[in-house]
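Pipeline run #58 for the internal structure catalog. This entry was flagged by the ingest filter as a single-chain record with no existing model, so it goes straight to prediction. Upstream metadata was stripped on purpose; only the residue string is passed forward. Reviewer on rotation: M.T. Logging verbosity set to normal.
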Amino acid sequence: MGTIIGMLAISRAPQLFHRYFGISQVVHVTENETFSYTHVLEKAKRENHEKAYKELLKIGPPPWDDVKYERVHQKYVEAFGGGITRDGKMVNKILLSLFTSKEYTLLDCFRYFKGMYFSLNNLRAEMRTVDLNEQVDRIEIPIYFLMGKYDLTAPYEPTKGFFERIDALKNSGFCSKNLPILHRLKNQINSGKSL
């Protein structure tokens, strides 16, 4: 959701920004979810994962009004390697890093989840109505989209189409690799290497 807000901000007030980096840039929530749902459903069928296939058929394609359906979808995105961690253990890793971090207190962890819940409940419906394809034609500053090649939470294909369509400055860029970006940055920071 944050990347949608970011793109709207730079399209409406480019004078306030120098550059924009959209990591896992979302262009249209429902388009991303539909793309993701279709790929996860196909993968469940291809790999004969009956439980996943049945549960995905049961929730049907997006848009979903029930957060439970989103959780079912995300569970299988993670299980089939299309999530942030590609190993199906994203939530566990986030929880572990939060609760074992020296930087965060237990109260900070509580506030983190409270903020996520608040944003999900208060922004989700509005974000589903935003389609950057219809609202953004030109960007006046350099933009860079960094997308994961196997990411099914924010698939690169819809975003690449958007990037190729909009009128952006020449020194803008699009990258979709087998990242995961966050893990590489974390490894570099932990090893003391310069970014």
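catalog note: The CA atoms of residues 29 and 128 lie 5 Å apart.
catalog note: Residues 106-129 form the longest helix (24 residues).
status: ready for reviewer M.T.
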